[in-house]
Amino acid sequence: MSLKKLILTGIATLTATLLFAQSSTNASDFWNNVRFGGSIGLGFTNNGFNGSISPSAIYQFNEKFATGASLSLNYAKFDDDKFLAYGGSVLSLYNPITQIQLSAEFEQLRINRTLATQTINIEDNYWLPAFFIGAGYSTRNLTVGLRYDLLYNDNKSIYGNSIMPFVRVYF
């Protein structure tokens, strides 16, 4: 038997074992640990505004750690320049104590922007990554805080600056 067939057989056997080993109780336990919600964000500068909404789902491993995925829709307007962005992200949340939430989030956005000059409008479309680290104050299902984009690019980012307040809610 070739190495490739052996590996595929092993993966198939492991997958079948895991699937058949799951009981209906385990499946319901999984969904009992999934929380739905998301975040909204607002950013303001002297010449503009940025707003975002991100519905998401997270899996709560325990009272301290959760991870999940999110969809994102962002809109920004700075002077005569307009940005529309959409995409997704993966995030991890850690609560060292109940009231403090630390977060890390990698976001990939498709940016559609229009830059207006006195003589011409320039349209530009591109992909933009962002990597946020954040901290917030949590009370039950609500967290309010600040996040910082480590990959912030002043020329391409849809965000007004690298620091952005957020509100997260999970049920």
Automatic annotation (TrEMBL):
<protein>
    <recommendedName>
        <fullName>Alpha-ketoglutarate decarboxylase</fullName>
    </recommendedName>
</protein>
<keyword id="KW-0732">Signal</keyword>
<feature type="signal peptide">
    <location>
        <begin position="1"/>
        <end position="27"/>
    </location>
</feature>
